[in-house]
Design goal:
The two termini are 25 Å apart. The chain has a single domain, classed as Acetylglutamate kinase-like (Carbamate kinase, 3-Layer(aba) Sandwich). With 236 residues, it is α/β, with parallel strands linked by helices. Helices cover 39% and strands 19% of the residues. Helix 2 packs across helix 4 and helix 6 runs parallel beside helix 8. A nine-stranded mixed β-sheet has the order 4-3-5-2-1-6-10-11-9, with helices on both faces. The protein has a two-stranded antiparallel sheet with strand order 7-8. It contains nine helices and eleven strands.
Length: 236
């Protein structure tokens, strides 16, 4: 059976990489991600990945503790590079070729990102892992992933989180919260739902990049999404 999407931008949460550790990288979770990604890549799906850095450092939290905001955001960008290197290593360990690209020139850690190089890598069967956010302060990795998804002409942006979709409220705090199967960009905005930051949502809306928010921490979910199963919440 043909996968539902030919090319995807997968946004992974840095926090999810912590697993049960509370900080850093849980290798069990990392390897689960690698296996899920390899399974989908083996079906011929072209995959670009943007991963957050919140398991190591968050620029906004640093700013609240007295760091200069620009330097704090740059530290956050470096955290995403560490996570990207870890994921590329895990992918290669299970036999899935990967290439790390960085928003700012960090050779030989990764290739300097360009749309064309990332697309070429995907066409060669490699997973393109795009690190360093947008390369600019004051932008989140959500905005970075929306931008990269649009640039590499992905069919959809898949936002892997700890929860299985978008709810009326935080399901971890409010037991009465109900889940949306689908929701418009405008409704996300008017309801004030914390799906992604507003810049990222606006970018996706303007460029008609649909978003699916789903639970990446349950092994097999990524493959189910590719098979067209109604998992998570579609934002359109």
């Amino acid at each position: 059976m043909r996968p539902k999407y030919n090319r995807i931008l997968l946004k992974l949460s840095g926090e999810s990489l912590m697993g049960r550790q509370g900080y850093g990288i849980d290798t069990v979770r990392l390897n689960q991600y690698a296996e899920q990604i390899k399974e989908v890549a083996s079906q011929g799906v072209e995959i670009a990945i943007v991963i957050g850095g919140g398991n190591i450092f968050r620029g906004l939290q640093g700013a609240s503790k007295g760091f200069d905001r620009v330097k704090g955001d740059q530290m956050g960008m470096l955290a995403t590079v560490i996570n990207s290197l870890a994921l590329s290593s895990a992918l290669e360990a299970v036999g899935q070729p990967a290439q790390v690209f960085t928003a700012i020139n960090m050779f030989p850690i990764g290739k300097h990102y360009s749309k064309w190089l990332a697309i070429d890598a995907m066409k060669e069967g490699k997973v393109a892992i795009i690190a360093g956010g947008t390369g600019n302060p004051f932008f989140t990795t959500d905005t970075g992933s929306a931008l990269r998804g649009i640039e590499v002409e992905a069919d959809v942006m898949l936002k892997g989180t700890r929860v299985d979709g978008i709810y009326t409220a935080d399901p971890e705090k409010d037991p009465t919260a109900t889940k949306f199967n689908e929701i418009t960009y405008d409704e996300v905005y008017t309801r004030g739902l914390k799906v992604m930051d507003l810049t990222a949502t606006a970018l996706c809306k303007e460029n008609r990049l649909p978003i699916i928010v789903f639970d990446m921490d349950t092994p097999g979910n990524l493959a189910k999404l590719m098979a067209g199963e109604p998992i998570g919440t579609l934002v359109y």
